[in-house]
Amino acid sequence: MVSLKEALKDKLSEEELRILRRGFEIIGNVAIIEIPDDLMHKSELIVSAILWRHKNVKTVLRKVGEVSGAFRVAKYEKLHGEETETIAKEYGCRFLVDPTKAYFSSKLSIERERIAKLVKDGERVLVMFAGVGPYAIVIAKLSKPREVVGVELNSVAVDYFRKNIKLNKLNNVVAIEGDVAKIVPKLEGKFDRILMPAPYSAKDFVHVIKGKIVEGGFVHYYTFESENHEDELPKKVEEVFLQNKMVVKTRFMRKCGNFAPYVNRYVLDLEFIREV
Fold this sequence. Notes:
The chain is α/β, with parallel strands linked by helices. The chain has helices at residues 4-7, 14-19, 43-53, 109-118, 134-142, 155-167, 180-183, 233-243, and strands at 25-27, 30-33, 59-68, 73-80, 86-90, 93-97, 124-128, 147-152, 173-177, 191-196, 213-226, 246-260, 263-275. The strands form 3 sheets. The protein has a 7-stranded mixed beta sheet, with helices on both faces. Strands 1-2-3-4 form a 4-stranded mixed beta sheet. It has a two-stranded antiparallel ribbon with strand order 5-6. Helix 4 packs across helix 5. It starts with a helix and ends with a strand.
């Protein structure tokens, strides 16, 4: 398929092509693109190129603000179309979502599949910051957990989460609305696996999972870090857990996206050893 830059090579100057962002994200039939202010006078050409390349796209959003706040929602402006609610599909799952109201990233689909394949039959799984349910639902669809519990603060996201449970015909996924700091300590029993997919703030919620993970269980911890400090990251994260009276050991680490130049999103698979 012709790339966006190739599609526009005869319509933009060399300098304009240089500052044009190479990639963009498609969620269902919604395309999300970042266009620098210096290129906004060519936005119609850029949108036309996207619509030409991707016939299923009905709405094009320009990202004008980074993911922020307790609900982890970015700011957008419409460049084409009106409808922002859509259905995203991955690995046989369907997700009803409006990216302007609830966080969702199609770029994490490979990571969601990776986690699902790690889940053993009969596991009890907790997904913190669950959003509209992508991790929870992919896990429930691709593996055989006993139960998947998702906790999310954004009431709009929780509403989508519950709709997505029905949409995917699942009976072993539970969506709970509320602050993980208040909800998780009150949940009954322990979990075999806990996901913390909030790289902006996961370290501030490590204390919440104390007493909620079985020995030998796993915590999937997401964070941002500079490429220059990648080698130090496992020790740094293990120290965060130790400060919260938990001993963990990094069994695997991978980059799963970038945030800024030389700053990446990482996931660490941490085996829970014991409390101290």
